[in-house]
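User: Hi! I have a protein structure encoded as tokens and I'd like to know what sequence might fold into it. I'm fairly new to this, so please keep things simple.
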């Protein structure tokens, strides 16, 4: 009897351990809904993001994901709740959207102290202001945003049926910069990036990208920060000679993603609805991977993320996938 009793104790203890440490499981299906998620990074920070699964993504098929990264001073919830942005497109096309939120940082921008949500896209926490650095306030700690995105994607893979070869990024302003950092440092995870009104940080290693990807960057002729950056006023004039003003920024992007030289482009002027656009297409990837970089200047757009960007962005993104 004692022997049987000991065996039963062993069996129950094993079952108890398995219950406390269950094996990872694959979700059986996607269930429609809006899911408010939190996770903890290794620096002890609780991070938030919102996952939206539309009715059109319900079922047992893996679906694409669009991660939208907000700009300075905003939140993921602000853009998730906007009825004119990515939610309607997700409903129409059957993909999952994710809206993460940045942590609040105290930092200096052109010598002015600011305390607001801000992504660590490369400039934040650096000290060389001549290159665009945004130094942190005394005793301020830089968020580990790369780890946050890594863990967020782990949650997505565990909780939803997603197509891991078709995870995309879009973003605006500081969120665009963060998207470009992820394109450089997580190129084996994200398939493509389409961002607005943001710049590539000069503090990123220009040789860090392991898999050059296709990228779209748009700016508006009425974006005061863009005009300021190229030494002019708004509205910026759309014509091919604009390449002379933006070549330094463009070459930085081309270097980071091994996409060629600023002299190797095709220029065109195309209407987006009733708005003229000037488009610079760089498709001479030095890696031979058929990747491209598209820099598009849009008439009348300001610094905000305009709903009219969505259709074009999705048409570009949906054609891209990891090898």
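Assistant: Happy to help. Inverse folding works backwards from shape to sequence: for each of the 323 positions I chose a residue that suits the local structure. Here it is:
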């Amino acid at each position: 009897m004692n022997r049987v009793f000991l065996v039963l104790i062993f069996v129950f203890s094993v079952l108890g351990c398995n219950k406390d440490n269950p094996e990872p499981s694959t979700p059986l299906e996607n269930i429609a809904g809006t899911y408010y998620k939190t996770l903890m990074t290794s620096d002890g920070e609780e991070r938030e993001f919102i996952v939206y699964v539309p009715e059109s993504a319900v079922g047992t098929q893996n679906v694409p994901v669009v991660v939208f990264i907000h700009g300075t001073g905003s939140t993921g919830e602000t853009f998730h709740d906007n009825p004119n942005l990515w939610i309607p497109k997700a409903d129409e096309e059957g993909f999952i959207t994710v809206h993460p939120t940045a942590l609040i940082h105290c930092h200096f921008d052109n010598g002015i102290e600011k305390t607001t949500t801000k992504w660590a896209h490369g400039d934040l926490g650096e000290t060389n202001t001549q290159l665009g650095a945004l130094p942190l306030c005394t005793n301020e700690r830089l968020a580990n945003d790369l780890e946050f995105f890594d863990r967020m994607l782990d949650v997505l893979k565990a909780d939803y049926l997603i197509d891991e070869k078709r995870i995309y990024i879009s973003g605006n302003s500081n969120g665009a910069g963060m998207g470009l950092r992820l394109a450089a440092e997580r190129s084996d995870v994200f398939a493509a990036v389409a961002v607005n009104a943001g710049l590539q940080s000069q503090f990123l290693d220009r040789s860090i990208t392991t898999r050059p990807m296709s990228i779209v960057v748009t700016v508006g002729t009425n974006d005061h920060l863009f005009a300021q950056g190229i030494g002019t006023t708004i509205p910026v004039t759309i014509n091919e000679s604009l390449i002379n003003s933006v070549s330094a920024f463009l070459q930085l992007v081309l270097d980071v993603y091994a996409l060629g030289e600023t002299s190797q482009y095709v220029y065109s002027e195309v209407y987006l609805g009733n708005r003229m656009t000037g488009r610079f297409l760089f498709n001479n990837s030095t890696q031979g991977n058929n990747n491209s970089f598209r820099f598009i200047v849009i008439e009348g757009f300001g610094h905000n993320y305009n709903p009219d960007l969505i259709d074009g962005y999705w048409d570009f993104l949906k054609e891209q996938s990891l090898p």
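A useful reference point when you look it over: The longest strand covers residues 162-172. Feel free to ask if any position seems puzzling.
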